[in-house]
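Hey, can you fold this one?
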Amino acid sequence: MASSKKTEKQNMEFMDLYKSVDNNLKNILGTDKGVTEYINILELKAQGSKSAPEIRQDLKMLKHLRWARNKLAHEVDYGTQILEAGDGEWLENFQKRMRKGKLPVRLTFWDRIRRLFSKH
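Sure. Predicted structure:
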Protein backbone atom coordinates (compact mmCIF):
# COMPACT_ATOMS: atom_id res chain seq x y z
CA MET A 1 0.00 0.00 0.00
CA ALA A 2 2.86 2.41 0.67
CA SER A 3 3.93 2.39 -2.97
CA SER A 4 0.32 3.10 -3.98
CA LYS A 5 0.27 6.16 -1.70
CA LYS A 6 3.57 7.29 -3.16
CA THR A 7 2.23 6.81 -6.69
CA GLU A 8 -0.94 8.67 -5.76
CA LYS A 9 1.09 11.61 -4.45
CA GLN A 10 3.30 11.66 -7.55
CA ASN A 11 0.27 11.55 -9.83
CA MET A 12 -1.43 14.39 -7.97
CA GLU A 13 1.73 16.52 -8.16
CA PHE A 14 2.04 15.72 -11.86
CA MET A 15 -1.58 16.69 -12.51
CA ASP A 16 -1.10 20.01 -10.68
CA LEU A 17 2.06 20.74 -12.66
CA TYR A 18 0.43 19.72 -15.95
CA LYS A 19 -2.51 22.02 -15.21
CA SER A 20 -0.10 24.88 -14.53
CA VAL A 21 1.80 24.30 -17.78
CA ASP A 22 -1.47 23.99 -19.69
CA ASN A 23 -2.80 27.24 -18.22
CA ASN A 24 0.45 29.08 -18.98
CA LEU A 25 0.31 27.91 -22.58
CA LYS A 26 -3.35 28.90 -22.83
CA ASN A 27 -2.44 32.40 -21.69
CA ILE A 28 0.57 32.70 -23.98
CA LEU A 29 -1.25 31.32 -27.02
CA GLY A 30 -4.60 32.95 -26.32
CA THR A 31 -6.41 29.63 -26.68
CA ASP A 32 -8.41 27.21 -24.57
CA LYS A 33 -6.21 24.27 -25.61
CA GLY A 34 -2.80 25.04 -24.15
CA VAL A 35 -0.71 21.86 -24.37
CA THR A 36 -2.69 20.55 -27.32
CA GLU A 37 -2.26 23.81 -29.24
CA TYR A 38 1.48 23.81 -28.57
CA ILE A 39 1.66 20.16 -29.73
CA ASN A 40 -0.08 21.23 -32.95
CA ILE A 41 2.50 23.99 -33.41
CA LEU A 42 5.36 21.58 -32.81
CA GLU A 43 3.87 19.12 -35.30
CA LEU A 44 3.89 21.81 -37.96
CA LYS A 45 7.49 22.68 -37.18
CA ALA A 46 8.55 19.01 -37.05
CA GLN A 47 7.26 18.35 -40.58
CA GLY A 48 10.41 19.86 -42.05
CA SER A 49 13.20 17.40 -42.61
CA LYS A 50 15.57 19.81 -40.89
CA SER A 51 13.49 20.27 -37.74
CA ALA A 52 15.54 20.75 -34.62
CA PRO A 53 15.97 17.74 -32.32
CA GLU A 54 14.57 19.87 -29.48
CA ILE A 55 11.29 20.21 -31.37
CA ARG A 56 11.01 16.47 -31.91
CA GLN A 57 11.92 15.76 -28.26
CA ASP A 58 9.40 18.26 -26.87
CA LEU A 59 6.73 16.93 -29.23
CA LYS A 60 7.33 13.33 -28.16
CA MET A 61 7.35 14.15 -24.45
CA LEU A 62 4.33 16.46 -24.52
CA LYS A 63 2.29 13.85 -26.39
CA HIS A 64 3.31 11.24 -23.81
CA LEU A 65 2.50 13.53 -20.89
CA ARG A 66 -0.86 14.54 -22.41
CA TRP A 67 -1.65 10.83 -22.76
CA ALA A 68 -0.71 10.26 -19.08
CA ARG A 69 -2.82 13.25 -18.00
CA ASN A 70 -5.82 11.96 -19.96
CA LYS A 71 -5.45 8.45 -18.50
CA LEU A 72 -5.35 9.86 -14.96
CA ALA A 73 -8.21 12.27 -15.57
CA HIS A 74 -10.57 9.84 -17.29
CA GLU A 75 -9.59 6.18 -17.02
CA VAL A 76 -7.61 5.18 -13.94
CA ASP A 77 -7.33 6.21 -10.31
CA TYR A 78 -4.39 8.17 -8.96
CA GLY A 79 -2.96 5.06 -7.32
CA THR A 80 -2.21 3.58 -10.76
CA GLN A 81 1.38 3.79 -12.00
CA ILE A 82 1.17 5.68 -15.30
CA LEU A 83 4.17 7.99 -15.23
CA GLU A 84 7.64 6.91 -16.22
CA ALA A 85 10.76 7.84 -14.30
CA GLY A 86 11.69 11.43 -15.05
CA ASP A 87 8.31 12.53 -16.46
CA GLY A 88 7.60 14.99 -13.67
CA GLU A 89 11.13 16.37 -13.75
CA TRP A 90 10.93 16.84 -17.53
CA LEU A 91 7.66 18.75 -17.18
CA GLU A 92 9.17 20.96 -14.46
CA ASN A 93 12.12 21.73 -16.75
CA PHE A 94 9.74 22.45 -19.63
CA GLN A 95 7.87 24.94 -17.46
CA LYS A 96 11.16 26.63 -16.49
CA ARG A 97 12.19 26.85 -20.15
CA MET A 98 8.77 28.23 -21.04
CA ARG A 99 9.03 30.95 -18.39
CA LYS A 100 12.50 31.89 -19.63
CA GLY A 101 11.35 31.95 -23.27
CA LYS A 102 13.66 29.07 -24.18
CA LEU A 103 11.29 26.73 -25.97
CA PRO A 104 12.30 25.42 -29.41
CA VAL A 105 9.47 27.36 -31.05
CA ARG A 106 10.00 31.00 -30.20
CA LEU A 107 7.04 32.90 -28.81
CA THR A 108 7.34 35.48 -31.60
CA PHE A 109 6.20 32.85 -34.13
CA TRP A 110 3.14 31.68 -32.20
CA ASP A 111 0.75 34.38 -33.35
CA ARG A 112 1.52 33.68 -36.98
CA ILE A 113 1.10 29.93 -36.50
CA ARG A 114 -2.13 30.42 -34.52
CA ARG A 115 -3.54 32.41 -37.46
CA LEU A 116 -2.80 29.43 -39.70
CA PHE A 117 -4.83 27.17 -37.41
CA SER A 118 -7.75 29.60 -37.26
CA LYS A 119 -8.16 29.36 -41.06
CA HIS A 120 -9.02 25.65 -40.83
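Residues 39 and 59 are 6 Å apart (CA to CA). Let me know if you want another pass with a different chain boundary.
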